[in-house]
Amino acid sequence: MIDKKDTKDKKKKAKIPLKKRNKKTNVSRSVKVGTKKVADIETGLVSEVNQFEITDVDFNFNKIWLGHLLDTLDIIGNKKIQIMNYLLENRNPTNNEIYVTQRIVSDQLKCALQTVSDTFNLLQTSNTLIKLRNGVYQLNPDVIWCGNNNSRMDILLSYKKISEIEDKSNKEIGDSNE
Description:
alpha+beta; Arc Repressor Mutant, subunit A; two-stranded antiparallel ribbon; 5 strands; three-stranded antiparallel sheet; 6 helices
């Protein structure tokens, strides 16, 4: 006879990753300032001018073909994965925003509203998703981004500011309840 407790313990252990993933993405910008001698072609006059060299570097990124990944995750199943797929497919690629209510997601995916709510809460807790206002969410640009580094940095900066504001307000609410 199989002990149900042993089966549950094995399932819990299976969800723990074998090694901790490095989830940090690193971005650096270096600016070199100097001077350079240049010659005017018409006059032959040599003059010294200021020169700026700006270098942006992103690393710890992997290239993923989102459509293929979403198809694969759909095969695996699970309503929470389907909800994440929905968010990835329906995001605005210019700012990572998703314009949808939890009820709409529930209706379109034919799953319980509680499952959608739980998934959104988990994504918010894991800093993958933030709620900007009712019906408007934003995916973390450190998780997924489509575009160049400069536009990603702009969105990432606003995302982090909003996250900090949310953290402060949640802390104040927690302090007032005590």
